[in-house]
């Protein structure tokens, strides 16, 4: 193995090694390099000589590892090493001391006592001496000894923190400093390291400074006392942005046109100025002024002017005014005068109350409660309808800046959806060419709109079609600002409906109108129901109702000759007998009466759907009851001698 070349692949070096530094083999002892055998190999690994395989005694005890039996030994965690300069970084011992300095060739003093602070820096065992500044002392002060390690004696020994204590003399550069006291950190540090501190001493007074203070007090008595000028800059910097807020009330009800109005008053502590702000509720019906009083100093009595003051001048300066309002004059519940106007202070904010308690030692009273006047809400007046759109649209655009569609009765619309009342009508005017025109009027129960369709008459020059789109129609002679519309109770046989200056007379109706009147009799008058019933009876559309009424009457009043229908099923029943009696009695009437009845009836058929356009617009869910009645197929109606006879269908 020793003969192999030291090339990659020919050695057994550890490829996982991370450290490759060579161990130290020299060290300095007393300034001389001394060789030393390394205790480890390259990268801190164990040497081959320290291995158990190099032991001369090849026994099992040597090769046996006791960890296999007793386990590994738990070692306490080792604290990380921290250098001395890191451990004591920015830690300083402070001692108070003084030294005596001679003053030669002076008739007033022979020595001076100078007070200094000795600082000991633990991070590098350096020291410095600083002298606090004394005004008008007559000699330079500041740093007396530059920071550094100071020698204790001629042998080169340096001062250490162990050499410092209270009551000892410290010689530095020919000056002898006597230590009198130290700060709390220094006391704690020295006591924790086993050093007993001496008793604290008091530094002797400086005779020169004592004599100067005595002479200053004696000379001050002979000076005249002048008021100290106020430091405006200091006051501005201290109270900048601090404002006292007050709620005040101006009561001028005793004056013509006056009333109670509230304002906001601000007192600026930085320059003792006052401003009064207008509130939003006071600007209703008045000119807009953001401030009632601009920011200025407020005099207590602005009418007290000196005799020499010119009356032509309008502005007051500080020379003419002796007293101004201060924070002590502004108390809740008190009254102040602002250039002749009387203001009552009602309340203040929390900052103002804290300022009075802490700075002025005054407790502000509780807020004054004043009964506020009832808000005057002007009654809005609706504008006059101009004829553009519907009145509902005009009112909706009046209430909001952005036009909105008027509200609809959704419940009524959903209940009466696809329900229409149809009537046949003719024009009621003096023009002979309009006598042949026939119309179908449809009233929508969902939204109250009226639709009029005209029937087409061949070879008459009348095209027919839609005469009126779905529209709410006003009643004649109603107020345009609050119009009244036609409703279902206004329609009956013989009624006159005026639609845009056109007079329509209702002459017929469909069966659904009568059914709707029977279901809602409270909506219609008795006359309206009777007219529709008489028309439908004359047209023969109420045959089933008549048959049912006769049957119920037969049950209540049975005849004497009761026919057994089980024995004679094909015989004539009691209902048919009464119908025949009814028709015979009617046939015996005078022909003149029948002619009068026929003349009373207008030659207008039932309101049958005239064309495809009406069929598209008509949607009904009740085809059996709501369909318009025309010619009834499957029923044979025989008119003989103007008398009606129904075939027996029993």
UniProtKB/TrEMBL annotation:
Signal peptide: none
UniProt-listed Gene3D superfamilies: 2.30.29.170
GO cellular component, one term: mitotic spindle
Molecular functions per Gene Ontology: alpha-tubulin binding
GO biological process, one term: mitotic cytokinesis
Main subcellular location: cytoplasm
Location of the protein in the cell: Cytoplasm, Cytoskeleton, Cilium axoneme
PANTHER family with a match to the protein in the record: EF-HAND DOMAIN C-TERMINAL CONTAINING PROTEIN (PTHR12086), EF-HAND DOMAIN-CONTAINING PROTEIN 1 (PTHR12086:SF9)
Protein name (Swiss-Prot/TrEMBL): EF-hand domain-containing protein 1
UniProt source species: Culex quinquefasciatus
């Amino acid at each position: 193995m020793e003969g192999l070349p030291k090339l990659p692949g020919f050695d057994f070096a550890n490829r996982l090694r991370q450290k490759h530094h060579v161990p130290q083999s020299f060290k300095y002892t007393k300034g001389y390099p001394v060789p030393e055998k390394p205790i480890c190999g390259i990268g801190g690994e164990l040497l081959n000589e320290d291995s158990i395989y190099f032991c001369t005694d090849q026994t099992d005890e040597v090769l046996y590892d006791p960890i296999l039996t007793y386990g590994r030994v738990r070692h306490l965690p080792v604290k990380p090493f921290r250098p001395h300069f890191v451990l004591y970084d920015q830690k300083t011992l402070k001692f108070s001391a003084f030294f005596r300095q001679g003053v030669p060739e002076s008739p007033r003093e022979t020595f001076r006592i100078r007070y200094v602070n000795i600082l000991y820096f633990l991070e590098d065992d350096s020291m410095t001496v600083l002298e606090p500044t004394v005004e008008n002392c007559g000699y330079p002060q500041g740093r007396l000894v530059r920071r550094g390690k100071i020698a204790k004696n001629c042998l080169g020994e340096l001062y250490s923190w162990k050499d410092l204590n209270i009551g000892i003399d410290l010689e530095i550069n020919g000056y002898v400093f006597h230590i009198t006291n130290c700060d709390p950190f220094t006391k704690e540090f020295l006591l924790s390291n086993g050093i007993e501190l001496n008793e604290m001493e008091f530094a002797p007074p400086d005779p020169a400074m004592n004599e100067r203070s005595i002479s200053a007090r004696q000379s001050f008595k002979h000076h005249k006392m002048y008021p100290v000028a106020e430091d405006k800059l200091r006051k501005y910097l201290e109270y900048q942005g601090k404002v006292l807020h007050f709620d005040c009330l101006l009561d001028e009800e005793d004056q013509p046109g006056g009333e109670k109005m509230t304002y906001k008053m601000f007192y600026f502590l930085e320059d003792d100025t006052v401003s009064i702000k207008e509130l939003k509720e006071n600007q209703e019906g008045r000119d807009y002024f953001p401030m009632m009083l601009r920011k200025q100093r407020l005099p207590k009595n602005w009418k007290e002017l000196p005799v020499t003051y010119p009356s032509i001048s309008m502005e007051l300066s500080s020379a003419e005014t002796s007293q101004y309002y201060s924070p002590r004059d502004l108390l809740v519940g008190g009254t102040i005068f602002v250039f002749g106007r009387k203001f009552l202070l009602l309340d203040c904010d929390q900052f103002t109350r804290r300022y009075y308690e802490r700075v002025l030692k005054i407790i502000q009273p509780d807020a004054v409660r004043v009964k506020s006047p009832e808000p005057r809400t002007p009654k809005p007046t609706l504008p006059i309808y101009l004829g553009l759109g519907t009145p509902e649209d005009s009112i909706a655009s009046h209430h909001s800046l952005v036009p909105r569609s008027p509200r609809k009765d959704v419940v009524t619309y959903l209940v009466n959806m696809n329900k229409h009342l149809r009537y046949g009508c003719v024009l009621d005017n003096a023009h002979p060419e309009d006598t042949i025109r026939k119309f179908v009027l449809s009233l929508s129960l969902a939204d109250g709109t009226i639709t009029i369709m005209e029937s087409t008459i061949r070879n008459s020059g009348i095209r027919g079609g839609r005469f009126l789109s779905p529209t709410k129609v006003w009643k004649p002679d109603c107020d345009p600002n609050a119009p009244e519309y036609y409703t279902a109770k206004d329609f009956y046989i013989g009624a006159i409906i005026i639609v845009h200056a056109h007079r329509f007379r209702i002459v017929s109706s469909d069966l659904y109108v009568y059914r709707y009147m029977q279901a809602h009799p409270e909506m219609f008058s008795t006359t309206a129901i009777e007219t529709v019933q008489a028309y439908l009876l004359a047209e023969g559309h109420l045959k089933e109702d008549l048959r049912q009424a006769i049957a119920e009457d037969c049950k209540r009043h049975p005849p004497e000759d009761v026919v057994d229908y089980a024995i004679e099923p094909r015989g004539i029943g009691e209902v048919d007998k009464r119908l025949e009696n009814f028709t015979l009695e009617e046939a015996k009437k005078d022909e003149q009466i029948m002619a009068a009845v026929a003349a009373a009836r207008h030659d207008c058929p039932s309101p049958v759907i005239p064309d495809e356009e009406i069929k598209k617009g008509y949607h009904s869910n009740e085809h059996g009851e709501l369909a318009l009645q025309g010619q009834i197929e499957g029923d044979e109606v025989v008119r003989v001698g103007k008398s009606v006879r129904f075939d027996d269908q029993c």
